[in-house]
Amino acid sequence: MAGKKSFPLRLDPILYEALERWAADEFRSVNGHIEYLLREALRKEGRLPSPRGTARKEDKSDAEH
Fold it and tell me: Minimal CA–CA distance to 7: which of 34, 28, 29, 40?
């Protein structure tokens, strides 16, 4: 597995506090929860392969034709 990319992330304090509570509810760190949320959003939009390695979701413009 490749190493993880580090970068600074500035968040509104209220947003961070909400993420902190949500992460605690899910027994994750804030960093781990942010990564989880981003991965799920990317997977839902077809921008990451599914966990089972299935094919990428059709481009939305192709689905309309």
Answer: 34
Angle between helices 30-44 and 13-25 (to 10 degrees): 90
Backbone phi, psi, residue 29, to 5°: -75, 165
Token pair for 26: 């899910």
Q: What are phi and psi of 51, to 5 degrees?
A: -60, -30
Asked whether the whole model's pTM tops 0.85, one would answer no
Tokens of 56: 């990428």
Is residue 53 predicted with pLDDT exceeding 80? Answer: no
Its sign, for the CA torsion 7, 22, 53, 55, is: negative
